[in-house]
Design goal:
Number of domains: 3
Shape: elongated
Strand order of the largest sheet: 3-2-1-4-5-6
Number of helices: 18
Mean pLDDT: 88
Largest sheet: 6 strands, parallel
Structural class: alpha/beta
Order of helices and strands: HHHHHHHHHHHHEHHEHEHEHEEH
Helix content: 55-70%
Radius of gyration: 26 Å
Distance between the termini: 78 Å
Low-confidence stretches: 284-291
Length: 479
């Protein structure tokens, strides 16, 4: 009686709280609360599921909670903000492999363990047997693809640029057809339990290889899109597992993750002016282009300035816009940016921040960094909002960004990033570019902004240069 009444109510409440939690995460100021709401929803979902199962071995449940809690706690404390994209990639992979293993467990408990000499479709029903196949396939692809994404982002084992194997599209097509063919065969044709289990494991192995093959051709510039897409995959795999287990809440929560991941993927593609097919199969940055490699030899007149030179310009600026990029994250310079912004505002300067959708290595990367430094959310302006304002801006300070401020996107039709929406920083009176060197961004192409007459190149580590600017501005205020 309790299971029939309480569990559906808890599931319904969890689903509502999941939706509220995701809604809260759409804004920086409510993101923390949204995360807590979603975490509480997951607690209710787990509690309701244990109640529904009735007799369970709580030693395994408690053990899992302890191990998972320790791993999650250590990750939350130890992982740096610059490594957050890598951690998100691994979390996506964990969700995918969990779904695949649950589907395999259903094969084991409902067919192999009972020794039933009949097809999986007969035991589970046709739709459930099909979702078992899809859960294993999508879950495996998500796991291995996420591991490769992690390796590319972290620069470990796998290099960040695209790895284009000969005949990769044909190989991928064969892997997909092979996995689906074997999946349908073990689900609807084979009746021997041991053979069903073996073929299910082979399908998982093929899906793991497929995940690797799908991600290695994708370069670092497209990692924000890949992470969003893999997040969607993990949700789809979870939703399919929900159909396998007949669990409505798992179906709902998986669908939420899958849909939100696809929406975010579309936003990323629009921000880069590229189709999803081009991201997945184009091998961005892998071909020679007229844009050049962006090395020092590609440039003519580049003007280098000191922090003192920059401070003299900032002293007379009425409006300043900061443009954060991945270099800001690497240098952990967000707090120093906030300190410089506070000094400028104290001096009477209007300060804002221009946020490009794909700046950094995952969606919202810059928003999270600046929020960590207590930058007011109202000062974070999206690209469409801020682009018309650059013409009326005295100084733009670009901190570690490159491709998202490259004029080639609007001026060179032959550039790999042609048509990509960028921040039109060159329209400001002065552009200060804080960069270690003239090395290219993820797109691997020259940035002519470095040569513009209104550009001041400040060559240094982002945090070090910002600290020098802070010291110079303090001297200005003290004078």
């Amino acid at each position: 009686m309790i299971q029939q009444i309480v569990v559906p109510i808890l599931y319904l409440l969890s689903a509502v709280l999941f939706i509220r939690g995701i809604k809260g995460m759409t804004r920086v100021r409510t993101a923390r609360k949204g995360n807590l709401v979603a975490a509480f929803a997951m607690f209710l979902a787990v509690a309701a599921t244990l109640l529904l199962m009735g007799v369970v071995d709580y030693r395994w449940i408690i053990g899992g909670v302890i191990v998972g809690g320790v791993v999650g706690g250590v990750a939350a404390v130890k992982v740096k903000m610059t490594s957050m994209p890598e951690m998100v990639a691994l979390f996506n992979g964990c969700g995918g492999i969990a779904s695949a293993l649950v589907a395999l467990s259903v094969v084991w408990t409902d067919s192999v363990e009972l020794g039933k000499v009949e097809t999986l479709g007969s035991v589970l029903g046709g739709s459930s047997a099909l979702t078992v196949v899809l859960s294993v396939l999508v879950g495996g692809v998500t796991f291995s693809g996420s591991v490769i994404a992690y390796a590319k982002l972290a620069g470990k084992v796998v290099k960040g640029e695209p790895i284009l194997l000969p005949g990769r599209h044909v190989i991928n097509a064969l892997l997909i057809l092979g996995a689906l063919g074997l999946g349908i065969y073990f689900a609807f044709v084979v009746e021997v339990p041991a053979t069903i289990a073996l073929l299910a494991v082979i399908v998982l192995a093929i899906s793991l290889v497929l995940g690797i093959m799908l991600v290695i051709p994708i370069g670092g510039a497209d990692m924000p899109v890949v992470i969003s897409l893999l997040n969607s995959y993990s949700g789809i795999a979870a939703s399919m597992t929900g159909f396998v287990l007949n669990n409505n809440l798992l179906i709902i929560s998986g669908a939420l993750v899958g849909a939100s991941g696809l929406i975010l993927t579309n936003i990323m593609c629009v921000a880069m002016n590229r189709s999803l097919a081009n991201v997945l199969f184009g091998g961005f940055g892998a071909v020679e282009t007229s844009g050049g490699g962006g090395g020092a030899s590609e440039y003519g007149t580049v003007r280098s300035y000191t922090a003192e030179d920059a401070a003299l310009v900032l002293e007379n600026a009425e409006r300043v816009i900061f443009v954060p990029g991945y270099g800001l994250a690497v240098a952990q310079a967000q707090h120093t940016v906030k300190e410089l912004a506070d000094l400028l505002e104290k001096h009477g300067t209007e300060v804002e921040y221009a946020i490009h959708p794909v700046a950094g290595r995952m969606p919202g990367h810059m928003n999270v960094l600046l929020a960590e430094a207590d930058v007011p959310y109202e000062k974070l302006k999206e690209m469409d909002q801020i682009n018309p304002e650059f013409k009326n801006t005295d100084v733009v300070i670009v901190v570690g960004a490159n491709d998202v401020v490259n004029p080639a996107a609007t001026k060179d039709p032959n550039s790999p990033i042609a048509g990509m929406p960028v921040l039109r920083v060159w329209e400001a009176s002065t552009v200060m570019l804080i960069k270690r060197s003239l090395s290219p961004g993820f797109a691997g192409i020259k940035n002519e902004l470095f040569e513009y007459e209104n550009t001041m190149m400040l060559f240094s580590d982002a945090k070090k240069m910002l600290q020098e600017l802070v010291a110079e501005m303090k001297d200005v205020l003290a004078a």
